[in-house]
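User: Fold this; tokens only.

Assistant: Input:
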Amino acid sequence: MKRDKHSRKIKYLLSNDPRGQKFNEYVVRNHPEFLEEQHPQLILVTGGDGAMLHAIQSNMQYQVPFLGHASGTLCYLMNNMDDYQTALPKILDPNTDLHIVETTSIKVDISSNDDGLLNLGFAVNEVVFGHDIMGYHSFVISSEDGSFDDFTIKGSGLSVCTDLGSTGYNFNLGGSVLPLGSNLWSVVGVACNRYLNDILHTQKLVVSSSKESRSGFSVFTDGIKKRENMGSNQVAILRKGPTIKIAFLNETDFVRKRVDIASRYRKY
């Protein structure tokens, strides 16, 4: 099918998940130009939230919105498009308004005496420090505004999440649901010896392992292990990263999901 020159330029990322194969086939058959687009205005993803997060991490350089077709299990960031044969022409139409949610990612660097500064990438939802639920570490935290000043906490892990990610792992740890677009981070401890549930403005945050820690901790971005066994001579540096845009066909559906999650702890 030949694309109208006035249509939105869409780049489609083929899915390796069996649940996305029908959608793959439809795109290949009807919109092969989606696979070759080099200058997209929108990136189309199929799958669940994991697929969306991976797609963002791998294609952040385009600096355009990401729109998801729900074909996975957890589809909080995706759109329900059962009739995608009708939905896709609407998405292609530049006159169709898309609701854009913006969130600030977290840039993650590792600084060490041996390797200098190494960039681990960016997190859209959260950065987690730890190893496993039975792990035991001693973390030292410092923040640019002084809210944390060589603050030491011992436990299984530490989570730093964005406003968008605050409804996920952070919420299950007892962290607050942050307003979208607030430029805030939630910092929560995982099975720790001290209560930690703080909200910070996005800023430079340094996390290291104290000398008394039993073992080095790993660093996860959006559930992906990026660094293993960080030693006492290494520190993780978190900073405000690029703005991420996620597109929705129906603003109400997405907002309702966030309200439903936040309401779980509300009492009469």
